[in-house]
Amino acid sequence: MATKQDVLSLIEQTYPTLSPSARSIANYLQQNPLAIVSQTSAEIAENTNTSKATVSRFFRQLGYDSQQGAKQAQLALRESGVPIFTQGSSLDQTAQELKNLSLTFEGLRPDTLNEISERLAKAKRVTLIGFRNAYPLALHFRQQLQQVRHSVRLLPQPGQTLGEDLHDILDDEVIVLLGFRRRTRQFKQIVEALQGRTTVLITDPTGQVYNQQVSHVLVCHLGNESPFDSYAAPMSLISMLCNRVFGVLGDAASRQTQAISALYEDLDELEP
Fold first, then answer.
1. Which of 26, 81, 215, 262 has an alpha carbon within 20 to 30 A of 109's alpha carbon?
2. Given a cut of 60, is residue 171 above it in pLDDT?
């Protein structure tokens, strides 16, 4: 069976050893990657002026049992978060984003959002933790929360370890852990280290394996139709939570934003 690589990478690796007929198939698939998941062996054979048997031998040479096996492997790889071209890549991007947003917000419980918003507003300190693609989301989350409340920190800091900061967690502190598919290897250990603390996990459906180890799990849908994951849903969720925190804090949040705006003016940091 082929290793966990996408079909196009395997074609590139095996290309020098392919027969002329197999190279015709390889050339066609490299130019039309969608055919891997959208066409049958017979259709690929017809489009490359080869035979169905030649197409079957081609996929076996790549390490798959059949063309269907290559298709399933390609789809499974995309589902795991690897950016590859699939059938949905040519669909309407706006429709895909709306679908992700709809699935995400339909799955969120109002009482859970209310509880999390209250905790984010009233905790002595909020710590946001994110790695890889989740880090810029955590950074944006911190920037928004700092507009309305004090004591918000982001981890990990560049070049620093986490042990000291995790040991320094306060009793009345909320930790927001952001982690999406293809999480770092240390993610599991961090979740375990945070057990017993008030921890909110913002993740995709694969992160539900941690349901029993954190206080709350908020699932965001990233889609799998396009080569790259979409983070529109988690960004929208972050916006919703920050707006709710503002509502909980009321006048205190307004005073915080006004004080920060005054500093922007004093420091001449923003355009007029």
1. 81
2. yes
